[in-house]
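User: quick one, sequence for these tokens?
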């Protein structure tokens, strides 16, 4: 019997009353491209003893959802809003592209500072860096240690020919100091990120006001690199070199997280600290060919897909002073963390902010009682995404998806990836053939509670439900804003700045250079492409084996 067949008996959680009136410290740890079965606490084969213990001692989040790629997830976490409402619904921010999370969004660290939190960001930013205003210290963080772009070499800290590893802080006069850390070349970034958090905890242990640390590991995103001593741990029981390398990267991150929990214990901060762990999207499986090393099994698909393997991540909340061990089946979306942390920081409204806080309408819900006391989730649905344009290694037709109660509807294309990785058991011609072609639009409906692996498309059996959920997606689409994507700006080239990445549009004398790349669609074309997804499902044929939009 699989764990899906087990009827879950949830533990009733009771928070420690001694901390009921004390603002908690908050640490949010975000892994990169970590698959559902890449960790031990989800029955994976990779050794993660520290994460396993935290998950066992904390509350395992069985239905935790994110976006299918990284910039949208990070934007949703910081803003509490769906990517369709922030312009981050299409793909990611690539190096040299002049756009990011809009500046008119009030984001998480800005809110927490109004409740006297110190705020610290470590690791990957990936929410814009073409102007200083988009970088962490201008978005509410007190300091930043890491890289602005979406990726880097783990040792050289370069991306597309430019160096991007820095320590940002304010000087005594409130000016931002951006220090490029050339001295860290050759040092493994996962270990550097861990050390930075451990050092921060040592500094913060005597601080009277609470703190928020956002730790966004680069692990386990490619390129797959790790010091040899981590690889040696798998020398005898993993023969494939690529799989061994990937497992070693996961272990390096796990060791770092163990160092952080020991630092919390050593500094006496554990009992009043809440730690949340998640991945930013599903594991990267078979993208653009190559060998599969990550696993989202038994979930379907992976990074870039609307299937469960792309958006349902391993996640838990660890708070020994506030939570008893348990497992929550509450539906939780990444947008929920902003209102949840806001509620915790304000002691559920008992503390007034220093200044009035204005946000755009939030898509997230306060889920603390669902997590801590096993109360019903405040959420019954979420829009997975609505994207009218193709992406590299992903969907090639306009697509959209929604989860409503136990049901999930996908219009357009749920992938690629379409299969179950690495297990071959469902990759039959009937499943992976013409019915699941990246250039063919179709309809898929799944009962996620009964069929979490998404093996049985039942859209032909429930045409009325298909139309009902399609109407919900259409209503969400009416509230969507155009994509913020902009083409590469040649003026960003690190060659112009001594081989470094800098916010190039704020450099004195900057002149925008036109790119030949035609990337950004005019609004009227964008809306037309979105209409292709819906059109009231005209042509929906529930008698066809592929259940397609003809």
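Assistant:
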């Amino acid at each position: 019997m699989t764990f899906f067949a087990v009827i879950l008996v949830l533990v009733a959680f009771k928070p420690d009353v001694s901390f009921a009136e004390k603002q908690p410290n908050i640490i949010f740890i975000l892994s990169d491209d970590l698959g559902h079965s890449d960790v031990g606490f989800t029955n994976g084969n990779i050794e993660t003893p520290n994460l396993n213990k935290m998950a066992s001692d904390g509350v395992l989040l069985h239905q935790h959802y994110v976006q299918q790629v990284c910039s949208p997830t990070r934007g949703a976490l910081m803003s509490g809003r769906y990517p369709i409402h922030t312009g981050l619904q299409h793909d990611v921010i690539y190096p040299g592209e002049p756009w990011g999370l809009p500046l008119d969004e009030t984001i998480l660290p800005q809110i927490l500072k109004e409740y006297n939190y110190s705020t610290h960001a470590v690791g990957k930013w990936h929410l814009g860096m073409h102007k200083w205003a988009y970088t962490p210290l201008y978005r509410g963080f007190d300091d930043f240690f890491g890289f602005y772009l979406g990726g880097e070499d783990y040792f050289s800290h370069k991306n597309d020919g430019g160096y991007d590893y820095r320590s940002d802080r304010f000087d005594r006069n409130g000016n931002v100091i951006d220090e490029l850390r050339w001295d860290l070349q050759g040092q493994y970034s996962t270990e550097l990120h861990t050390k930075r958090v451990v050092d921060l905890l040592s500094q913060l242990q005597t601080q009277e006001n609470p703190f928020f640390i956002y730790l966004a590991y680069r692990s386990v995103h490619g390129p797959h690199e790790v010091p040899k001593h981590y690889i040696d741990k798998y020398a005898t029981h993993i023969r494939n070199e690529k799989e061994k390398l990937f497992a070693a990267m996961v272990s390096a991150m796990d060791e770092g997280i163990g160092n952080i929990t020991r630092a919390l214990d050593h500094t006496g901060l554990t009992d009043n600290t809440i730690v949340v762990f998640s991945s930013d999207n599903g594991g990267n499986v078979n993208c653009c060919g190559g060998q599969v090393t990550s696993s989202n099994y038994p979930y379907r698909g992976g990074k870039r897909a609307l299937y469960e393997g792309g958006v349902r991540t391993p996640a838990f909340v660890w708070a020994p002073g506030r939570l008893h061990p348990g497992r929550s089946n509450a539906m939780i979306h990444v947008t929920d963390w902003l209102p949840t942390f806001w509620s915790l920081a304000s002691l559920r409204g008992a503390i007034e902010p220093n200044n009035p806080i204005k946000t755009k309408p939030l898509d997230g819900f306060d889920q603390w009682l669902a997590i801590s006391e096993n109360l019903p989730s405040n959420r019954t649905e979420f829009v997975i995404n609505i994207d009218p344009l193709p992406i590299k290694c992903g969907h090639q037709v306009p697509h959209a998806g929604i989860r409503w109660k136990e049901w999930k509807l996908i219009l357009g294309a749920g992938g690629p990836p379409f299969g179950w990785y690495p297990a071959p058991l469902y990759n039959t011609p009937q499943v992976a053939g013409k019915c699941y072609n990246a250039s063919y639009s179709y309809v898929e409906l799944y009962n996620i509670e009964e069929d979490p692996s998404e093996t049985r498309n039942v859209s032909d059996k429930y045409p009325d439900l298909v139309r009902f959920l399609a109407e919900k997606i259409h209503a969400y689409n009416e509230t969507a804003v155009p994509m913020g994507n902009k083409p590469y700006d040649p003026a960003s080239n690190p060659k112009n700045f001594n081989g470094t990445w800098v916010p190039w549009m704020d450099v004195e004398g900057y002149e925008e250079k036109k790119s030949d790349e035609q990337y950004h669609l005019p609004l009227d074309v964008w809306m037309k492409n979105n209409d292709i997804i819906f059109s009231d499902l005209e042509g929906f044929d529930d008698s066809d084996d592929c259940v397609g939009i003809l």
